[in-house]
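Technical annex B. To support the medicinal chemistry partners, we prepared a structural model of the target in complex with D-xylulose, based solely on the information shown next.
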Amino acid sequence: MIAECDSSPVYLGVDFSTQQLKVIAVDDALQVVYQDCVTFDKDLPEYGTKCGVHIHDDNLTVTSPVLMWVKALDMILEKMKSKGFDFSHVKALSGTGQQHGSVYWQKGAEHLLKNLSSDFPLHHLLKYCFAIKDSPIWMDSSTSVECRSLEEAVGGPQSLADITGSRAYERFTGSQIAKIYKKCPDEYQQTERISLVSSFAASLFLGSYAAIDYSDGSGMNLMNIYEKTWSQACLNACATDLGRKLGELTPSSAVLGCISSYYVQRYGFPSDCRIVAFTGDNPASLAGMRLKEGDIAVSLGTSDTIFLWIQDPTPTVEGHIFCNPVDSQAYMALICYKNGSLTRERIRNDCTSASWEEFSKALKANDAGNLGNLGFYFDVMEITPPAVGVHRFNGQNVKVPEFPPDVEVRALIEGQFLAKRIHAEKLGYKILPETRILATGGASSNKDILQVLADVFGAPVYTIDIANSACLGCAYRAKHGLLAVTGSSFSDVIKQAKEPKLIARPAPGVEQIYRPLLKRYEQLEEKVVGEFVQ
Ligand code: XUL
């Protein structure tokens, strides 16, 4: 699709996600007029990533090459240009990135960013700009030691959650920075700015360092989520001179400035194209799905997440509270699961000759409840609950070594959704008659998977047309950022956007099947975690 050749405004959203760089353009009526992507493994094979990442030998450290992200940006803009995308209509641009990952800009990098020559691609110009070439990302779980010392420094896990919205998590940026400070002191010394993936991407467009926004900043274990300032106690516990290296924080809908002249000269963006603060992918998804209080979002991507809109948060040691990206008075609660689409793909390959069609058939081969068989599929160390391995139980709660392929497929999908409902209810979420489940992410295009979601939650499931709600949310946020200065709220701005549509209703009678299964699953989960702890 090519943007119309009239003078109507266009808003751009970009998403630096784990496996791809994506872009969506919407017109003034918020209809999608262009979509594109660059897939890291396929389009940038020279970086040797698998699913966009490098898993190191310890199986705990996970990084992505920062220059790969920069080159992906060159590539996608060139692609858009060669397809005739008219950049001159882009009034505002915003974006998002996988949460928690960090980028370490070398001393002198901002000077280079401010003086980019439009004759060269960015990955040439920024080649020597990074003190750490492999950025730690959200899949990393190598920082348990740093987590414990951060919690101890502020009085324990609950105290840290009371300040930052979460107890210490390995992937959160504070502990990641603490590890780099300890293990690579010279590189840390050489770093003049630390960005999140989102603010790093915003910096590329801005041509200077972009501030970290409140919502993505909540995923660092470093920010006081009520005061929206860095917590000095948390900063001190992680590294010296950290406040200066992180820079200021900013509201998620703030206009950061105009686009760098590099993009004006090289691609024809208008020089007054506004850059609206970038944010994390889950907050951006909340915007793209038009989530309201009472809804629950279920995102089925590389990571699975569930999130809710909340007004008065009470952080606990399970799950996270982030500042809300579209309403500065509100918050969002989130739980993240590492074993999402990669585990679904693995089971699809093992059980159904690598076809989603076959996977759907297998899913439908058994009735709701899977004859009492339940499974836990943690190919990699899970976050909630902290456990690893595959654990299968028959209807008598006896551990079994394997299931027939059909049973395995249903056990995986039912298990993933039972876990999500149990954990959401532990966060205080109540399923009411008006509850809507908003599904997004790659697997949300599979109606059979969404039917199981509706059945397990006992609530209707809705989707939006665009599976990448994070990227779409940023195109919406770009327009909102531009209008927010005149007092428009996000909900006013998105009135014109398409409403989510109903995909699945719970089948009659399933409630009676899943109610006892939820209890059993919860008890078995405790058993699995107990085994792991011993
Ligand atoms: C959320 C999380 C992941 C990443 C990658 O806490 O770690 O969802 O944002 O998508």
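Notes passed to the chemistry partners:
Residues 18, 98-100, 138, 171, 219, 280-282, 303, 305, 336 surround D-xylulose (CB under 6 Å).
The chain has two domains: 10-283, 291-463+500-534.
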